[in-house]
Write a structure and sequence with these properties.
- Helices cover about 5% and strands about 45% of the residues.
- By secondary structure, it is mainly β.
- It folds into 2 domains: about 1-20 and about 120-245, no CATH class; about 25-120, no CATH class.
- Strands 2, 3, 4, 5, 6 and 7 form a 6-stranded antiparallel sheet that branches. Strands 1-11-10-9-8 form a 5-stranded antiparallel sheet, with no helix packed on it.
- Strand 3 and strand 4 form a beta hairpin.
Length: about 240
Amino acid sequence: MSKTAWAVLATVTMAVAAIAANPVPAAALPRHCLAHAPAATTDYQAIADTRVAGFGVGDITSMARLPDGRRFIAFGDTAYFDLNPDGSPGALAGFANNTAWVQSGRCFTLLDRPGPGPRSWVLPPQEDGSIYWPGASVVVGSRLYVFMQRLRLDSTFGTSLGSAVAAFDLPSLKMARLTTMPWTPSRVFGGGAVYDDGYIYTYASQRRTCQFCFAGDMAFQVFMFTVSKSKPTRCEVSTICDITS
């Protein structure tokens, strides 16, 4: 690839700062502990079966093992409510579009924003009422990367407006960077991701065509492509994404 092509492609990527509320002190984060470390799915279900309005439970979108042994569990839509005596949901006390649990032994810490107002852990910097819905999460070295789709909530599943990847320093899980990613409404990267041999492979699905995305001068590279649901097609290098600096 020529230097001119490299420069043109590099301009596609734009880093943006996330909206950062004052971080909640670790001691103040919502926490739920079981009697013993979970060993089966029934143990995890017990958290939902004993939930309270101060500890949200949601749709799991991905999980990642952190270098220190903790488990990171990303949630999409997250509801906050107490349970009625018969086990049915009580009044909705809060809602978020992205949160996470961090499991350490028998205890789970919830990463979100305190109410009232939006409870989501990460908010889009556009401040236009759009939200982030998380996808894949992957650890590389001392950072956790969580892929996000930005949506406008104007229908059941919303309208896709863009995508980004949030980088969190480890072990603190403090956001280090939020970077926009290549995006089209029919091709949203981040539904799945894996790190291997210097590359993050992150996936999108669509009927045809595919796209590679990589940053060759980084400590590691991002390599993105779509998976064809119909027939294999030739994939061309089309853009460069720097999510690591």
